[in-house]
């Protein structure tokens, strides 16, 4: 039986297997922000693999059962967090909502779709944490609706200090099922990267703005 302590490396291995995560320390990717990155993560691919998406859903559900048993609503971030929030809500038998990146420009101009009541305790499900800006925006939308954002739970985190500090300042807990550290360790063990790549990969996490310069 898989325990939560085993999930980071187990999930990292699955993400590498289906190429949801790619590591290119010597040929970095370029983010929209202009940051050079040795890693590219597309967790949308997990939707196409029933075994992996169920591992993710059950892991999220286990975290919520153990650490946030008072949860009343599961919220998904648009767009990649929506399917995973649906899987988790189904497992826990809880209502689900989703949060747009911006309010609709027509109709009721909703930012949150679905029913959330004032005072309800909400867990926000996200697919990926990079700098944390969009995830925090979603959690704050929950708060502005009069509900309580208990935490943001993500499939994967790049573990950037900028994100950690932003969540700490906002007073909202952040957890991820897997992370950059677990991924690099698994990638080395499985031969996806060389020992000589490790220092380069670690340097990116410490100072992403200077990487590749």
From TrEMBL:
GO terms for biological process: 'de novo' UMP biosynthetic process; pyrimidine nucleobase biosynthetic process. It catalyses: orotidine 5'-phosphate + diphosphate = orotate + 5-phospho-alpha-D-ribose 1-diphosphate. Its cofactor is Mg(2+). InterPro entries: OPRT, Or_phspho_trans_dom, PRTase-like, PRTase_dom. Pathway: Pyrimidine metabolism; UMP biosynthesis via de novo pathway; UMP from orotate: step 1/2. 5-phospho-alpha-D-ribose 1-diphosphate binds at residues 100, 104, 106, 126-134. One of its GO terms (molecular function) is magnesium ion binding. Keywords: Glycosyltransferase, Magnesium, Pyrimidine biosynthesis, Transferase. Orotate binds at residue 130. Its EC number is 2.4.2.10. It holds the Pfam family Pribosyltran. It comes from the Bacteria. Residues 54-166 form the Phosphoribosyltransferase domain. The keyword Magnesium applies. Belongs to the purine/pyrimidine phosphoribosyltransferase family. PyrE subfamily. This is Orotate phosphoribosyltransferase. It comes from Paenibacillus urinalis. The gene is pyrE.
């Amino acid at each position: 039986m898989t325990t939560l302590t085993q999930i980071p490396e187990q999930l990292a291995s699955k993400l590498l297997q289906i190429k949801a995560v790619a590591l290119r320390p010597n040929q970095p990717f370029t983010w929209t922000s202009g940051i050079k990155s040795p890693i590219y993560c597309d967790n949308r691919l997990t939707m196409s693999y029933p075994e992996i998406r169920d591992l993710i859903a059950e892991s999220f559900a286990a975290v919520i059962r153990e650490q946030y048993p008072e949860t009343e609503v599961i919220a998904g971030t648009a767009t990649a967090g929506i399917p995973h929030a649906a899987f988790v809500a189904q497992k826990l038998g809880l209502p689900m909502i989703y949060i747009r990146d911006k309010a609709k420009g027509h109709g009721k101009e909703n930012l949150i779709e679905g029913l959330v009541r004032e005072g309800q305790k909400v867990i926000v499900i996200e697919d990926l944490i990079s700098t944390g800006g969009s995830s925090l925006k979603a959690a704050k939308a929950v708060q502005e609706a009069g509900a309580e954002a208990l935490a943001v739970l993500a499939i994967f985190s790049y573990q950037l200090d900028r994100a950690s500090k932003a969540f700490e300042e906002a007073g909202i807990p952040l957890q991820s099922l897997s992370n950059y550290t677990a991924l690099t360790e698994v990638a080395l063990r499985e031969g996806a990267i060389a020992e000589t790549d490790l220092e380069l990969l670690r340097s990116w996490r410490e100072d992403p703005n200077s990487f590749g310069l």
